[in-house]
Amino acid sequence: MVWRKLAVPSILGNLADPLLYMLGLGYGLGQFLGEVQGVPYLTFLAAGTLAYSVMNSASFETLYSAFSRMHVQKTWDAILNTPLTLADVLLGELAWATSKSVLSGLAILLVIWGLGLYADFGLTLWLLAVVVLTGFAFSGVGLAVNALAPNYDFFMYYFTLFITPMVLLSGVFYPTEALPGWLQTAAQVLPLTHAIALARPLVLGEWPAQAVLHVAALLVCGLAGFYAALVLTRRRLLR
Amino acid sequence: MSLHQVTKRYAGQAVVDGLTLALEPGRCHGLLGPNGAGKTTTLRLALGLIVPDAGDIRLLGRPVPREAAAARQRVGVVPQADSLDPDFSVRENLIAYGRYFGLGRREIEARIPALLEFAGLTARAQARVPTLSGGMRRRLALARALVNDPELIILDEPTTGLDPQARHLVWQGLRRLIQQGKTLLLTTHFMEEAERLCDTISIIDHGRIIAAGSPRELIRRHIEPHVVEVYGEGAADWASHARRLCRRCEQAGETLFCYTDDARPLTDALDRRAGVRYLHRPANLEDVFLKLTGRDLRE
Ligand SMILES: Nc1ncnc2c1ncn2[C@@H]1O[C@H](COP(=O)(O)OP(=O)(O)O)[C@@H](O)[C@H]1O
Ligand SMILES: [Mg+2]
Predict the structure, then answer these.
(1) If one looks up domain B224-282 in CATH, what number appears?
(2) What's the rounded Cα separation, in Å, for the pair A205 and A213?
(3) pTM assigned to the model
(4) Which of A110, A174, A202, B45 has the fewest CB atoms nearer than 10 Å to its CB?
(5) Coil/strand/helix, residue B103
(6) How many whole angstroms from B16 Cα to the centroid of ligand 1?
């Protein structure tokens, strides 16, 4: 499938935001906070920013961009008139959103490498896998949300009611241990928590605890999301 | 392509209602109907994009929707909305679309010059879609539908919203396809379009076919050969008089439509009368259409 890559401008757009957060908060707050979990705040923030950026990019792509291809530009309708089916179209969107989110993850990773924000370079190579997995998980979920959305406004709810709380709860900016117990429990079901649970130890030079669990959680998220998207979109478009 | 006793319901309402339709290869078929008659739904059923509640559908010999994807390999579609990719150039739109049929890039590129020539877009090959006029977009959508060298081409209202010049250009393209021996199925609510292009026409309303045949047959079978249109303030007053001189008489606003086998008595009477103007013309498909589907406005 050839969603041609109009990547550069949008990657820059997607990237500027998390990067500004990371460097701004990292250097700014870092002055006051000193060390978090035994490392400079900027280093602590790096893994969170990585996951956050991948999530954002995957979500934008599967929500706003996919919705416009589905409803406004009617690209999906055009493709469905060919031998391709809705499953092909959704698979294409999934692959496209995942690859685009991987690109934005890669950009953050380059910054992490460039600034030397890691303990063990070898371990940071595993971050590539985490990036792909995270992109896949949020692309799947995003497509399911897209299938439910009556209009663009719906995505605002997704972002304010799901994405933003998740960013606050899942340990992007501070360790989840800082939260009250019940919120920590709640955080355990959020996909971003699992992405960060994998990414942060890798940045800090350790092998993640319960890696299999976190990997499985992200896989399930992506697969379940994609399956839901398939069922819901079929119901929506092919009746 | 054939549909046999096909029914499709939305919310209990039959949008396509026991519709039977068979296309002869190498001919141009028109599906004529007012807005909301079920034309687009019929096409979507035939393409296997939606599942019928009852009936059998075949597309290029294959059962639909079961083998619809394989059948679509040899079908070209010009949808009601252009659905071109606005981020791509004319050329790229053709390449991307060809890829959906599993064609190789080389193969598509070899076909592009002929497609561009067909669409009259050779000079605009690198232009982006938003810079094209409505007529150019329509022609690009038509060229795109030919990228897989289809046997059957399905067009949903191919000239709606185009100005007369652009419409004639599209018609020229369609005529070339008919000459090449392609099978065409087009929906339209322009009678002139159907009359000029189609070998056979099915008039559809409320999801049912209410008349079918060649344009001439339809006119011969359903309507009197002569029409006298009477205009002017006196037209309404004259109606009762007219009814005695013609077979059928309809009033639409200020105009009186008189249908008759012999227009002579009418025109003679009208010549003697002051304050009215009239037009004597042969009956056409539009008269048939209006007779069969009524003059009420459809939204
Ligand atoms: N997916 C759908 N859900 C509900 N109603 C529909 C759907 N698609 C079409 N309809 C209804 O079916 C009728 C026929 O539509 P359509 O086939 O598009 O008509 P036409 O193309 O002849 O103008 C319309 O009244 C339309 O509102
Ligand atoms: Mg229609």
Answers:
(1) 3.30.70
(2) 19
(3) 0.88
(4) A110
(5) coil
(6) 9
